[in-house]
Amino acid sequence: MSAQEIRNYTLNFGPQHPAAHGVLRLILEMDGEVVQRADPHIGLLHRGTEKLAESKPFNQSIGYMDRLDYVSMMCNEHAYVRAIEQLLGVEAPIRAQYIRTMFDEITRILNHLMWIGSNGLDLGAMAVFLYAFREREELMDCYEAVSGARMHATYYRPGGVYRDLPDTMPKYRESPWRKGDALKRSNAWREGSMLDFLQAFTDDFPSKIDEYETLLTDNRIWKQRTVGIGVVPPEKALAWGMTGPMLRGSGVAWDLRKKQPYAAYAHVDFDIPVGVTGDCYDRYLVRVEEMRQSNRIIQQCISWLRANPGPVMVSNFKVAPPSRTEMKEDMEALIHHFKLFTEGYSVPAGEVYSAVEAPKGEFGVYLVSDGANKPFRLKARAPGFAHLSSMDAIVRGHMLADVVAMIGTYDIVFGEVDR
Fold first, then answer.
1. Are 315 and 229 in contact (CB under 8 A)?
2. Which of 11, 235, 254, 258 has the fewest CB atoms in 10 Å of its CB?
3. Given pLDDT bands bounded at 50, 70 and 90, which one contains residue 418?
4. Cβ atoms of 288 and 267 closer than 8 Å
5. Would you say 226 and 405 are in contact if contact means Cβ atoms under 8 Å apart?
6. Tens digit of pLDDT for each residue in 52-72?
7. Assign residue 21 a region: left if phi > 0, alpha if psi is -120 to 50, beta otherwise?
């Protein structure tokens, strides 16, 4: 019998695979079930966001930011809006800073709920997805209440936020599925203002996180799929430019909210969770604890916002639109409004890098202005892009099923990777 040559074979993982999170195409070189090499192919969701921003006035590109990492919308807006504010030399009112802080944390919870649900689904834990989306719906209603849109809010504006928090929350209507006592229960939190709703939500949310932990933290199948998988040593994490839970999961306590505080983070109290071994399980624990800390921050913001009413936008009409009543009475206000939404405003020449601690890591916007009313150059620093570059080195020697666990633990969204 002649000796038969055994060769590695290549396997296309994605882009249509449900665990490829959108449009990742991984070309895997396999030796049996073991990965020898992983080559990520990206660019299948490239929409030219950075180039498009160069052809529009500054204030018309805020909506593009929502569509980068489309699971943590307002955090992307925050980085872009802060970059414009730094170039203009404008500072948002303190109430707007607290509202931004609160919505950044609501966004972090939204992101981590999406992550825990989809990552659980990828690794075979089906129920968590349904649990996580139950709470996600409640917070999506907060987005809708302030901006009118469930996802792409365009709520943050240079100089503050679009409007103050609403006094009412949308209520469920009677339907064949929700009526009588069930309807009353569903609307119980929604009788007061948005802050009342968030107060009720944050009081209840820790018990819901306990439910997710009951399903996963000590689940032996979950631990078999995540413990010791995708270990990232701290020095490697820094070398690859990792940020957020990927870096903190490896034991490095780096968080821009503490190291370079922005908005109202210097005035709120919270802890930074860090991992020990840097595997998928540690990163899971870090994200779960981050949800608890975000909950704490939201509660502190609610208390402050209740006690301190005030403006949420600068009163500079070159940057912020006048109110509708002023427009109807004052010719100059009408002209300001027209100029602001057609021509925009010219930003002084200069360059700035503005970064925020987005749920996935450091999301930064590098903005160059040549003194015109639109950016000369815009570059978005997406955390997922840096994380994905480490895929080949981390996955080598793991089994094919562990590749799915690794893609999940990166928490990548291709809107921001491909831009």
1. no
2. 235
3. confident
4. no
5. yes
6. 999 999 988 888 888 888 888
7. left
What pLDDT was estimated at residue 4?
Answer: 66
- Going by C-beta distance under 8 Å and a sequence separation of 6 or more, which residues neighbour residue 210? none
Q: Identify the sign of the CA torsion 92, 97, 99, 105.
A: positive
C-beta atoms surrounding 373 within 10 Å: 17
Side-chain half-sphere exposure of 151, counting CA atoms within 13 A: 10
Tokens for 214, please give them.
């009951």
Instruction: Tell if the pTM clears 0.90, that is, is over it.
Output: yes
The pLDDT assigned to 293 comes to 94
Mean residue pLDDT across the chain: 89
Q: How far is CA 250 from CA 13, 217, 235, 401, in A?
A: 27, 18, 9, 22
CA pair distance 44, 293, nearest whole angstrom = 35
Q: How far is it, in rounded angstroms, from Cα 110 to Cα 383?
A: 17
Contact by Cβ (8 Å): 53, 365: no
Round to whole Å and give the CA distance between 277 and 240.
Answer: 17
Q: In sequence order, what DSSP letters do the residues of 114-156 get, joined into one string? A: HHHHHHHHHTT--HHHHHHHHHHHHHHHHHHHHHS-SS----E
- In angstroms, the CA 31 to CA 10 distance is 9
Rounded Cα–Cα distance for residues 334 and 341 (Å): 11
Crossing angle of the two packed helices 280-307 and 400-410, in degrees rounded to 10? 20
Cβ atoms of 399 and 374 within 8 Å: the answer is no
Tens-digit pLDDT profile for residues 355-393 = 999 999 999 999 999 988 899 999 999 998 989 888 899
Alpha-carbon gap, residue 267 to 277, rounded angstroms: 31
State the residue for tokens 């893609």. 407
Place of tokens 């009313």: 373
What are residue 34's DSSP bridge partners?
Answer: 31, 399
In 89-241, which residue ranges form alpha helices assigned H by DSSP?
Answer: 94-122, 127-147, 181-187, 194-216, 220-226, 234-239
Residues 6 or more apart whose CB falls under 8 angstroms from that of 400 comprise 11, 28, 30, 33, 34, 35
> What is the distance, to the nearest Å, from the Cα of residue 363 to the centroid of all Cα atoms in its chain?
9
Among 353, 354, 348, 355, CA closest to 369: 348
Q: CA-to-CA distance for 266 and 256, rounded, in angstroms?
A: 11
The total of other beta-carbon atoms located within 10 Å of residue 404's CB is: 20
